[in-house]
Amino acid sequence: MNPLRSDQIRGNWAAPVLPINADDSIDYARLSGEIDTLIAMGVDGIYSNGTTAEFYNQTEDEFDAIHRLFAEKCAAAGMPFQIGASHMSPAISLARLRRAVALQPGAIQVILPDWFPPSDSEAIAFLQRMARAAAPVGLVLYNPPHAKRVLSPEDIGRLKDAVPELVGVKVAGGDADWYARMKRAAPDLSLFVAGHTLATGTRHGAHGAYSNVACLHPRAAQRWTGQMRADLAAALELETRIQAFMRAHIHPFISEQGYSNQAVDKLLIAIGGWSDVGTRLRWPYRWIPPEEADRLRPVARDMLPEFFD
Asked: Is 138 helix (H, G, I), strand (E, B) or coil?
């Protein structure tokens, strides 16, 4: 696949998660079926090894096996794909990136080193070396709200100025003022925000989402993304219901019960029922019992019937 320019990274991108067996091994047969399903659902693109794919809890042999499978399937189908080469260790992340480049993704996602927050000069030095190793493939910087250093729009602009190979960012988003600052600081970057805020983000200039909403159902998330272009008012109304469902029924698993974001992403997949990946996370992290998905499915169907056609 040819490297993607920033203006080619758009829309609804979905992610395969790891189906985990009871012995903590990866079920590659179920992973293969999950990737096939995402391709068949016609999403705008597929990305690997974000937080929800438990990138921090893979051996290097597993990383290679996952991505050989992933790249082979996406390339054969002509599906745009990005590989996440992230790791808390910059040395391991660089080694992952070098191996990922050979698989010819459209872009490579990275996080900043995560054991100790890097300064501006350290972040630039990190991204410059990663960019040289990735060439001609561009970088997408993944900077979620739980990162050790959450970047401001101005921080991102300085990184883009120093590292022109940076083609996109994944961030939480913000209010209208935040979007205006992003447009001034880094107008040429592909800007991806949280999936459940994408309609509002689109109104303010966001380009897409590496989407938690796609966890609930990738095809429905794809339809919703198209609706933002055709009928933004209707898309904003659906966003209101998506956020109401998340706030009332999903966020309490994090805020009250202490589960991780990746645990609730797997719960959303189980509620949507589009892939049999299960809710189990790898040791030592807790997963949400699948019975909770059975309990919440009728609630989700009532609040969000568009996701259960």
From this structure: strand
Q: What is the CATH number of the domain that holds 131?
A: 3.20.20.70
1, part of any domain: no
Count the domains in the chain: 1
pTM, 2 dp: 0.95
Q: How many whole angstroms separate alpha carbon 195 and alpha carbon 221?
A: 9
CB-neighbour burial class of residue 149 (10 A; exposed 0-12, middle 13-18, buried 19+): middle
Q: Residues for the chain: how many in total?
A: 309
306 located within any domain: no
Question: Is 186 in contact with 169 (CB distance < 8 Å)?
Answer: yes
Residue keyed to tokens 């055709």:
230
Pick left, alpha or beta for residue 287 (phi over 0 → left; psi -120 to 50 → alpha; otherwise beta).
beta
What is the predicted pLDDT for the residue at 83? Answer: 98
Going through the chain in order, the beta strands assigned E by DSSP cover 11-14, 45-47, 81-84, 107-110, 138-142, 166-170, 190-192, 208-210
Q: Are 17 and 265 in contact (CB under 8 A)?
A: yes
Residue 296: what pLDDT? 98
Measured between alpha carbons, how far is 256 from 126 in angstroms, rounded to an integer? 36
Q: Is the separation of the CB atoms in 74 and 43 below 8 Å? A: no
Residue closest to 17 by CA, chosen among 247, 255, 252, 282: 282
Look-up of token digits 């797997």: 266
